[in-house]
Amino acid sequence: MNVPHLTTATTGPLLALERQFLQQQVKIETWLREKWQNLAAPFYCSVDLRNAGFKVAPVDTNLFPAGFNNLNSDFMPLCIQAVQATMAELYPGIKQILLVPENHTRNQFYLENLAALQEILVKAGFATRVGSLLPDLTAPSELALPSGRQLLLEPLVREGDRVSVADFSPCLLLLNNDLSGGIPEILTNLQQAIVPAPHLGWFKRLKSEHFSHYQTVSTEFAEALGLDPWLINPIFRNCGEMDFLKQHGLEGLQDKVTDLLASIRGKYREYKIEQKPFVMVKADAGTYGMAVMMVQDAKELAELNRKQRTHMAASKNSQSVNKVIIQEGVYTFETWGEAEAAAEPVVYMLGKHVVGGFYRVHSRRGINENLNAPGMQFEPLAFAESCNNPDYGKCDCCANRFYIYGVVARLALLAAAYEFKTLGESNP
Amino acid sequence: MNVPHLTTATTGPLLALERQFLQQQVKIETWLREKWQNLAAPFYCSVDLRNAGFKVAPVDTNLFPAGFNNLNSDFMPLCIQAVQATMAELYPGIKQILLVPENHTRNQFYLENLAALQEILVKAGFATRVGSLLPDLTAPSELALPSGRQLLLEPLVREGDRVSVADFSPCLLLLNNDLSGGIPEILTNLQQAIVPAPHLGWFKRLKSEHFSHYQTVSTEFAEALGLDPWLINPIFRNCGEMDFLKQHGLEGLQDKVTDLLASIRGKYREYKIEQKPFVMVKADAGTYGMAVMMVQDAKELAELNRKQRTHMAASKNSQSVNKVIIQEGVYTFETWGEAEAAAEPVVYMLGKHVVGGFYRVHSRRGINENLNAPGMQFEPLAFAESCNNPDYGKCDCCANRFYIYGVVARLALLAAAYEFKTLGESNP
Fold this sequence. Notes:
Two copies of one chain form a homodimer.
Chain A: E1 5-6, H1 12-23, H2 25-36, E2 44-51, E3 56-62, H3 76-90, E4 96-101, H4 108-123, E5 127-132, E6 141-144, E7 150-155, E8 157-159, E9 162-164, E10 172-176, E11 193-195, H5 207-225, E12 236-243, H6 250-270, E13 279-283, E14 292-295, H7 299-302, H8 306-313, E15 321-328, E16 334-336, E17 341-350, E18 353-362, E19 379-382, H9 398-426
Parallel strand pairs in A: 4-5, 4-10, 5-7, 10-11
Antiparallel strand pairs in A: 1-16, 2-3, 2-17, 6-7, 8-9, 12-15, 13-14, 13-15, 16-17, 17-18, 18-19
């Protein structure tokens, strides 16, 4: 079976969760459908999950997802259909799309992602080209990728309030660039639609904002289903501003870590879980798993050496003062192969449809470590089955596990949609 | 390769057609998308096609499709997603669906179809039960099917202007019954929505109406693409009323057959096709391939014996007077296996999405015979790949052939949507 093994003695609660999800599938889908009736889904989204056996929770929601090349090619038809349905619903009348990527020209994995995304959009029936923000790209550049795909990067040109590449004037710009550095001048005040809206870029977005929406959504969902919300929700605390280098705000952080660890310990006791609770300390703004630290005891924060403090202070734009959140750490108890490498699922959505996912398999990381860190090496393992076709007859089969992942990921998607709405209201 | 072999010397035009479809894929999808912008698709539909190597054309469009059990189970996720997208678009707010089937209680294939359809609807998140019109069904009847599926048939009960089964009061009735015998009393003047609208039943629908819309749609499409419309359109003539038993109207029919054969001969000459042209004589109203006859020469119609005339006169409700249409016969040049059995593709759609298809493989029928006749035995051969994911790099591969089938089937779907609209305007 092309699916990681769940190595845990505490699968009892998860199997109970699986059973409840399957028994209430119609209710779950109805609940989600009703939420989407008056709410626009993001065009695309990927959600990093952790499966601890006793709980399944999202740990990161990416509104500018890369990694489409890691999906199972058997589900290409599902991606094509999802784009067609989503475009008809959200952006009728659109014909030409310009994909605006990150400036990673040497990252072959990222370029394969772009080529895969372009293939999906073209097969869905949209003329799609790639307009690069690279300052030194002055002519079109054709890249041959390891998969055999071709990718044409073209320089983005602005004329008046429109951007274009060569003879191609798009109706819609699709950002695959998380705008960590802010909105580039060339993309401001455009007549063309930009998706997702640039003010959702990481230069502005806060993790605490997202997880506070997720907490509301997952609690409401759990209540509707008669579940303990904790089984799908990582508890978190907002810690305000910190300066790790100057050690400002450390005491307040320690207090909150102690408090959060106590809450987790309470839940562990309730479910008879013997593992040691831990929390993740993260920069509230920022991506790429930068400035993330695992803590099992608040004392560790007082004992950081200079190197560790510099690491925590450095986020993508080298700001030393950061807003910080602390989030319940969720063990990953899925392992792959004889080496028992830790595996973390990532679920992909196009519009409100789950179109697949893959595991990040990492042999050199522990089960309580962040698997999405800078420079991290992982092996992608595509989901063997889709996330929308559970098998009622079986228990603990991969189709059912993927169904749960798809549901939890859609709750994070819903939280992102509320986040969009709130941010949209403050950035009309 | 799990796909029939195309046994014909005249694949030249088809490969040219395939190339044109692939090269213009974005244009094709854009054209279709624009058509659907102001037009509601039928909830579901299946289209029988014939592939003659030199042309691909629809020969029957079924608005109450059975056969969902014959689709490739790998594409179940595509069906589920298509139902979700279609319901959100056409029938938001619906929670409970009652499937109203044909009264075929001994046809295991049909019952498997119902169970497959119910599974798709339930997995898409709709509570779905089956309400039977069988007059002698007074209590719920649980059937165990050969596939291992269970099917519960429940008697339909009417109270005031609503129908229900037991404790289940549906918001929507989904007809899987073609209403050849007219609209049953129990389904008239209901408060609940009925899909497809009952006035689209075969008691009222005319093939000539559908194919005249198809002619308009396919001609417009072909012009947009720079194709000869004949390559995707079977020519037909409307022949008015006939009485085969009394031999009324036979002469007029012969004239029209001679005229239609001459038109086909002209096209065969143009494309250097050496086969003998033929036409199909069909009842304009009616389903199940009843009263269908293959004719290569108008004289054959004057020489019918009593048995043949009785056959032509008998349609589902034993009406002896029929409106008749004659349609260009399209050879099927796809054959399967060493026995070279004739194979005819059937394409399935949910909303405007093509979700798969299968071949009817029939070893005892000729390449110019109707493969969908009463009592007919066929082996279903599920399409090995989806119809929306062509392979640009190859020519004459099954993914590309299925893409063409999906496009032609969607043109027939579009014709059906116009037919709905026209009938809806006359039955508000």
